[in-house]
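[Q] Does anyone have a clean structure-token version of this?
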Amino acid sequence: MRTDWQGYYLDGKTAARHRATIRLMQSGLEVTTDSGTTLWWPYEEIRQTQGFYAGEQVRLERGGETPEVLLVSDAAFLTALHRVAPKLATYFHDPARRKLRAKLTLLAALGAIGIATALYLWGIPAMAALVASRVPVSWEERLGQAVVEHLAPPEKRCADPTRARMIGDIIATLIAPLPRPPYTFRVMVVNDPTVNAFAAPGGYVVIFRGLLERTRSAEELAGVLAHELQHILQRHATRALLQHASTGLLIAALAGDASGAMTYGLESARALGTLRYSRQNEEEADAKGMRMLLAAGIDPAGMIAFFEVLRKEGGEAPGLLAYLSTHPNPGDRIESLKSLAGQSQRTPVKLLPDYDWRDITKICQAAGPRSREEKRSRPATTSPRPLQGVGRVYFVPLGEFPLASVEYLVTHYRDKYGLAIETLGVVQLEPGVVNTDRRQLIAEELIALMKRKYPQLANDPEAILIGITPSDMYIQAVAWRFAFAARREGRFAVVSSARMDPVNFRKPPDTDLLHTRLRKIVSKNVGIMHYRLPQSSDRDSVMYGPILSLDDLDSIGEDF
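[A] Here you go.
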């Protein structure tokens, strides 16, 4: 029987991961790190916080508010634990029960097929509502991504980062009053004249160009976005997919099977654009969307005005039929919206006061991502174009970032661009830079830590400091779930390689891939802060933005 397992150990004091060998024994775990430190974890002092679902890594914790942590990717570890210490292993999840639960769920679902039609019509919506309220956010995000990839594929998306940022600013204003949004909201504009918009599970909002062109102000679009965001926050989109999809999607959701959900999710994607929410869902999205506008200080008249346009022109403008079919009865809703808007006592602040809203209609005029054939037909670039930099660049290793990787980057920029970058001493992480609830580093605090450790350079206007950490991080000022990088004051940046490393996604180590991804993010920050280059909508350029996912990162080029 196998007793030794490979994993990672976190000491609870820093965000650094240490490779460790975990030996299963009858009364506890013997943990030996690569540095030679040996620790003893009695089973009675251990609690399991992850690893209850298929595909999820096992996470064990020991201690109080900032516990020590063990991470094991192989779920068979739990099965072996139950065999080695059957009496004490009751503290931990038994994977054998997962198979039994999946079988029972499947049998129950198959039995439901034979229920009378009336019970089916009432039962499925009730089950969808129950499941939608309990599925993990990560499951919703993966389902939403599958839906968006089908209905809004990359080649149809409008890729103008400047105008997309205007829409992003509206989203940021809307969600700012929310205490802790569970989703990272992403808005995509599709180059299609249809007047429509829809919300997909997990934080995705898709707007068709035809609808964007119908809006006459940022406030009108804010009304549409607030309505769609509420469909996501109230999980209407998830519930609607579960209700209209096959029984297989419900079973996958109940079992927490994200990979199975993707199979059924693709089937559901075809229906999402034409789904009709219940009247109750629409009224809830209206009411909560209006309250979202008021909480953000946005003029509610924009939301009302847009619905009035739908009511007046819907019968005469065929382009509005798509939106009307999925967002029915505008006339019945306007009076309710006016009543809610009248409750506001605040003076609204105008959105994007210095921006000519008519310019937003040009968002789809910028060239989109090139096809692979176009890229292959483009002549290869033999050398990067001459660049003139401003200031001196310094790399700052943060925490346990490998110095060999830092020196690799230094050599890369010296050989390719003739840029001399100096590596400063390692800065050890302090407790204040870690959000223990999220188990992530705080980007703003990392930058502040660098400035404290190197005050002379922090006060030197010619110095550019780029910190690099292997730990996951997020930006406190925005509602993102994570960040590849963050910049401040035009001279300070911090880069996290955590989401770039295949190992952290339970894949084989790939140093070349990790270094390629790291080069792209670091180069973009060097381009912005040292070479003073603007961000670009050209995916062949490392200056492409925004980069929202690993797919975005892997698809862009490396040259400026």
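[Q] Thanks! Anything notable?
[A] The chain has three domains: 4-93, 137-234+282-362, 384-555.
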